[in-house]
Backbone:
């Protein structure tokens, strides 16, 4: 039996999930997921790793479907609820999904599949109790889930993880971040991504904690829930913290005081999925007394590196290797670098994915000859903590023989009074290979000449942007990451 299910059996009467439809116990979740599993199986005894794509909003229903797929022996393929049809079609057809499970509100967008004879279309309204039929025994080396890479650098690839991979990804965080049955978390992140699925929902439910769902992000609503005093663990992306801070600053002094006092009682607050600006970290600390815990992970590995739960959380750094995860820094020839030299983060451990779905060549290319996963992220060890310098491709600009960190330049740009947000990229240049360019979201009128002089006082000339572009907003994917290939098209 899967550990997630075994653990749930220890807390039958304890609250597991709260959503718009009510309060549900662990027994409710087990019973409902058993119903889903029975329906999915039909006349079969085991789904035998059939791909089950599902489009369900964040809710008890989502978890019931996800757990039901796993308990029936299928591979869960969660679909992003905000994607247009072509993106959904790409995932459904790339995975060769056998069954499509759809909540009523999404039946319209996926209507073409209702007539498709090659796929079984099930509405969540069709799930009904078929009795407690026997479910298959699931070995942990089976495929469990396919999530798609964010596509910030190329066409998304399906990342196949096994139950063993998922259990390793959960258990390392439960240990490192001290999850327990006394915890209560607010789940606001998209559930087609490892951050929401593993770090929030699965860690909480593994531990016997409570997950409350907010169907869509609303800063005022988040603070209203916080003020009730139940939530003590919160995880989000930097964009969400930025929006919470912006809303907080519109409130009266008494409302601010009430929220701050509430936030100070939290046990843990985490930021991830994109680089956390130091300015946001410091502002959030001034509001909550919490230094956000930054960590490092990817769809392919879950989380691998984290700032400490107890101990110094260093701004601009991602911390140290998580329990059970091996990390090394290598040069372009996969030779281990000395600790003071930048190189690629390479990862080994039971948390590392099995394969890119249907892409054996890409899978082989992703690993070194001795079995380490190449992340493509460049980092350096800085006084005992890893510090990300950027992606090997999009965040490392190669100009005139220099390797320049786009993230370093962005961090400095964000401290300029007229800059609300920014994205830095390299654009092709015949003389230099690439030159540094910056897209700026301004807070008010911005004069690039004054900004350029200010930047030159803080950075070497070769790191100072040669081109500036004023934009209303930066292009982002569903997880709030700036899509730098889209940004390049603006220049």
Residues:
């Amino acid at each position: 039996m899967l550990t997630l299910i075994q653990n749930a059996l220890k807390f039958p009467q304890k609250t597991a999930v709260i959503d718009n439809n009510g309060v549900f116990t662990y027994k409710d979740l087990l019973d409902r997921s058993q119903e889903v599993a029975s329906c999915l199986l039909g006349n079969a005894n085991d789904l035998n790793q059939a791909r089950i794509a599902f489009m369900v909003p964040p809710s008890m229903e989502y978890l019931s479907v996800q757990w039901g797929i796993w308990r029936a022996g299928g591979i869960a393929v969660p679909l992003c609820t905000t994607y247009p049809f072509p993106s959904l079609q790409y995932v459904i057809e790339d995975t060769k999904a056998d069954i499509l499970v759809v909540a009523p509100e999404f039946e319209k967008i996926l209507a073409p599949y209702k007539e498709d004879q090659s796929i079984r279309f099930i509405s969540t309204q069709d799930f009904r109790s078929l009795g407690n039929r026997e479910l298959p025994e699931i070995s942990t080396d089976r495929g469990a889930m396919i999530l798609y890479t964010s596509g910030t650098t190329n066409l998304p690839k399906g990342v196949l993880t096994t139950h063993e991979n998922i259990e390793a990804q959960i258990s390392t965080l439960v240990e490192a971040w001290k999850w327990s049955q006394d915890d209560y978390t607010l789940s606001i992140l998209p559930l087609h991504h490892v951050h929401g699925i593993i770090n929030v929902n699965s860690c909480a439910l593994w531990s016997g904690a409570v997950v409350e769902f907010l169907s869509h992000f609303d800063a005022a609503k988040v603070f209203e829930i916080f003020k009730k005093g139940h939530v003590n663990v919160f995880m989000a992306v930097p964009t969400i913290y930025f929006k919470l801070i912006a809303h907080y600053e519109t409130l009266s002094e008494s409302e601010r005081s009430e929220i701050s006092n509430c936030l100070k009682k939290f046990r843990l607050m985490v930021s991830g999925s994109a680089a956390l600006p130091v300015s946001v970290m410091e502002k959030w600390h001034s509001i909550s007394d919490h230094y956000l815990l930054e960590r490092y992970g990817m769809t392919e590995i879950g989380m691998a590196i984290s700032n400490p739960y107890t101990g110094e959380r260093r701004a601009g750094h991602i911390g140290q290797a998580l329990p059970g995860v091996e990390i090394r820094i290598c040069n372009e020839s996969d030779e281990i670098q000395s600790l003071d030299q930048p190189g690629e983060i390479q990862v080994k451990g039971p948390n590392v994915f099995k394969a890119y779905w249907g892409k054996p060549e890409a899978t082989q290319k992703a690993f070194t000859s001795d079995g380490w996963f190449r992340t493509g992220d460049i980092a350096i060890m800085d006084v005992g903590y890893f510090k990300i310098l950027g992606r090997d491709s999009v965040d490392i600009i190669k100009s005139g023989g220099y390797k320049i960190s786009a993230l370093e330049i962005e961090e400095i740009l964000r401290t300029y009074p007229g800059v609300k947000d920014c994205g830095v990229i390299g654009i092709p240049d015949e003389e230099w290979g690439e030159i540094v360019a910056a897209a700026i979201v301004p807070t008010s009128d911005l004069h690039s000449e004054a900004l350029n002089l200010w930047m030159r006082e803080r950075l070497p000339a070769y790191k100072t942007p040669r081109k500036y572009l004023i934009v209303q907003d930066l292009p982002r994917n569903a997880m709030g990451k700036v899509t730098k290939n889209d940004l390049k098209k603006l220049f």
